[in-house]
Amino acid sequence: MFTFEIISQQVLNGLLTGASYILIALGLTLIFGIYRMINMAHGAVYMWGAYFCHVLADSIGMNTYLAMAIAMVLAGLLSVGIERTVFRPLKGCPDWVALVAGLGLYYALENFGWIVLGPRELHIHALATQEVVRFWGLYANLQKVILAGVCLATLIGTMLVLKKTDMGRAMRAASADPEAARLVGINTERMSMLVFFLGGAFAAAAGSLVGSLTSVAPGMGFRPMIIAFVIVVFGGMGSIMGTVVAGLLVGVLQNILAYAVTPKFAYCFTMLSLLTIFIIRPTGIFGEDK
Amino acid sequence: MTRGKLVIGAVLLAYAVIPAFAPENIVHLMTITGIWIIIASGLNLLTGYMGYVSFGHAGFVGIGAYTSALLTLKFGVSFWTAALAASLFTALFGLLLGVAILRLSGIYFSIGTLILGEILYSIYYNWSPVTGGFMGLNVPPPELSLPLMGGVSFELLQWYYFIYLLVFLVVGGLKLLIDSHFGKEIIAIRENESLSQSLGVNINQRKSQCLAISCFLAGMGGALFGAFMGHVDPDSFSIAGSTEFITIIIIGGLASLMGPFFGAYVLITLSLYLEVLGKWRMVVYGLIIVFVMIYARGGIVGFLETIFKREFRK
To answer: pLDDT tens across B48-100, in order?
Structure first.
């Protein structure tokens, strides 16, 4: 039952699941880094991104990946709109206020989804979902491998931008000390818009790819958002490396638990283990000590 | 002071006579509102007075609802014993949980309770042999036998008076608690935790006790809600439910005894009027939460304070 092949297969599945979480969590991390706020409406952007992709790919008949790219832009704009209308007025409020407002907005957007999408499940047609990649005796769905590739490319791109470009340096400065960054002439408002745009786009990429593997439904964003949120906290709030490690860990943990215990309780046990670690070490595995 | 008593008397009288005029569905809705006031008052003690914002409160309500339902269904315990046992069990859960989760403070406490809420919801939803899964459980109506009158059926009217008697007792009890030394200490914890500790407040003990009381009221509300509705299902105890409770105490006004009262009525009335919006209802509901967060964090009590220039809270 617990042979090496099965375990390594579960770990691989876990890493691929983790990749989708990382894509969602990366946006949250970037937003948190600059904005010091947790965007709980992120799951709705993820869902709407997937829906945009469905409309472009299946109703209009575009190539799936082109549709995904356009959906990323649209979802990015949606995310920027959310920043302008909801989160900007809440700057300087206690942290939990943004949490409640974000959740409220999430419910509004999810239920708006119920009106637009209707009760049926929608699909994003992609040929890659039918292909299987085999290597070292392991199996992986091609679309999941593409998802992992997109995730890796996004990560490397983000890291390069943050480390090497002026814009990235400005972003890191705005994240380290917003006041001082403003003093030296960094436009922090533009930075905020940028991270919200990127966050929304990354979430849409994850939503489109996951949506093509399963289905697009109004409620699809809630759980991934909560998991991504936990990953961000767990990775030390605002640390990209922490987010990556935590994302992969959570993905693997969830898949192993689904196999070893029962799929039904995998989520519950994953959350329970994370809560336990969280209570012991609130600042996360990569965070600084309080 | 006499004016205050007069107002309380008038409100009590109004509540006593309302069922004589109001249509049945209004009485039904008011009874549910009463249960919400009990739960929200408990959350207000934790969040408004002590400053710990719980995003998992609906999960605690669920513990009370399921414990009470299971005790009546599987063990044949009478509703009254079951409801009391369920409230005490939820309080015990809060007390034990407090040892761990109260290590966290500020936003970390909120995150911890949010995760906990998800765990509890997932248990309610997935542990089908016990909780009935997404179908939930059907709860038999409570029976009451009085010494001389024999069995009394517990209909809407009895429920209404019973719930509002409890609301009165809970709000009165909380008033005594807030005015007591305990109340001053938890407010001190909200204002400055380390300072109050250095002044000799046993903060760990106070925080656990406060969480336990808050959970007791949540459990009680849950047990009442299950029996009144005749049904318990997981969707009432999700993060959405917790968000609703937080919104209630914010609409009403944090750290005010009357806050949950106003908040629950406003939210219930809103949801009643929003029925006409049909499927747009939940969209508008979510937007109202956003609106309250941006423009009305002082709540109704804060609004009344600015109008009447009088302190309604401490």
So the answer is: 888 888 988 999 999 999 999 999 888 888 888 889 999 999 999 999 988 88
% pLDDT > 90, chain B? 23
Task: Give the domain range for residue A110.
Answer: 19-221+235-243
Closest C-alpha among A282, A199, A206 to residue A251: A206
**Minimal CA–CA distance to B83: which of B128, B31, B125, B143?**
B143
**Is A249 a domain residue?**
no
Is A177 inside a domain boundary? yes
Q: Where are the domains of chain B?
A: 25-308
- With CA atoms as reference, the chain B residue closest to A92 would be B294
Kindly state whether residue A264 falls inside one of the protein's structural domains.
no
- Residue ranges in chain A modelled with pLDDT below 70: 1, 128, 283-290
Q: Which residue has the higher pLDDT, A257 or B272?
A: A257
Report ipTM (2 d.p.): 0.84
Query: φ and ψ at A140, to 5 degrees?
Result: -150, 140
B145 forms bridges with which residues in the sheet?
Answer: B151
Q: Which of B106, B112, B290 sits opposite A95 (nearest CB)?
A: B106
Number of domains chain A contains:
1
Q: Flag whether A284 is in a domain.
A: no
Do the Cβ atoms of B256 and B177 come closer than 8 Å?
no
Fold type of domain B25-308: ABC transporter involved in vitamin B12 uptake, BtuC (1.10.3470)
- pTM of the predicted model as reported, rounded to 2 decimal places: 0.86
| Smallest CA–CA distance from A106 into chain B, residue | B286
B111/A278 touch (CB, cutoff 8 Å), yes or no:
yes
Q: Percentages helix, strand, coil for chain A, rounded to the nearest 5? A: 80, 5, 20
